Amino acid sequence: MKIDPLLRALADPTRLRIMRLLAHMELAVGELALVLGQSQPRVSRHIRILCDAGLAERRKEGSWVFLRSAIGESRAPPVGAAVARLLAAAERDDAAFAARCGEDRRHLAAIRAARETSAEGYFARHAGEWDTLRSLHCPDEPVEAALARALGSDSPGSRDLGALLDVGTGTGRMAELFAPRADRITGLDKSPEMLRIARARLQKLPAEQVELVQGDFLTLPFADASFDTVLFHQVLHYAQEPEGVLAEAARVTRPGGRIAVVDFAAHDHEELRERHAHARLGFSDEQMLALLSEAGFASAPSIALPGMPLTVKIWTARKDARRGADISPGERMKPARGKASGR
Q: Mind listing the domains of the chain with CATH numbers?
């Protein structure tokens, strides 16, 4: 992080306001324009300067462009951490700046409310479809409780999940559930609309703790050994070739890290292929254990939660530290079709 462009980027009141807004949550360019009361082209120019200085990061999600802070007291390089502390101190000590930031946050509250309204509308439109599927299996609450126990810790209240990747985050429910136990959470989904729903659900969590990323579970956009825990909640049945998906999961899991797969036991309900785009009619224990072993995971005993008529299974495993990331790029990038969208 170079000091000259950084100081030039901060030498503007609007850019200071943008950085304080991004300290609270990730925002679309259009949302920033609404809060600031400025045109999108003008806000985009400010964003370019902040990104060039390394203070902020752009991320494209469908036709939207989102901006997030690239600095923070707990995760930035030393200069960036110092800038984050300086901006927080300035808001505490400069009355005029504090008043301006307070007004911006009031506008931000309206954006949060609009996101929640949009999410409620989406749920209303799809409620019948999801209720039909839920009626076939065990209720969500026992499944979530069993998953929490399966990923249990000897130290209640600890951040035992470390860096957590929620593949097919969907509405963000799993990220919300496990946020108290994770140092940071990355939710990945292929659908921009689902990411907007997740963003509404997770917007009250600390901005530094949560990141939402658009991507495919066959080509995860993360470096090797990036995560301590990888979660697939009702996602793997969308994969035409689950072995490729789990190979990618193994690549981004640190040695000794954990994976949890929540999905259906093998069944014969063919209608789920047409109505809900399921590529796989669940998995037997033998199938799942073989898939996890091939990917380099050592499995624990599975957990079954019977429903009428579908049974939900929870499989957990740890990455074999001796194998590391020994799966070749060719093996882990097999062509296949699938989607990463959970609920």
A: 3-108 (1.10.10.10), 136-332 (3.40.50.150)
Residue 313 CB-density burial (10 A; 0-12 exposed, 13-18 middle, 19+ buried):
buried
Pairing of strands 312-319, 227-233: unpaired
Decide if 3 contacts 79 (C-beta within 8 A): yes
Tally of residues, the chain: 343
Shortest CA distance to 166 belongs to which of 195, 137, 130, 143? 195
Beta strands in 243-295 (DSSP E): 253-264
Q: How far apart are CA 217 and CA 242, in angstroms?
A: 10
| Each residue's pLDDT tens digit, 49-101 | 999 999 999 988 777 888 999 998 766 678 988 999 999 999 999 999 999 99
Cβ contact 221:193 at 8 Å: no
13: Cβ contacts below 8 Å, ≥ 6 apart = 100
pTM of the predicted model as reported, rounded to 2 decimal places: 0.75
Tokens 């499944």 correspond to 143
Q: Rounded distance, CA 226 to CA 221, Å?
A: 10
Type of residue numbered 191: S
Q: SS3 breakdown of the chain: % helix, strand, coil, rounded to 5?
A: 45, 20, 35
Q: Would you call 57 helix, strand, or coil by DSSP?
A: strand
CA 248 to mean position of chain CA atoms: 16
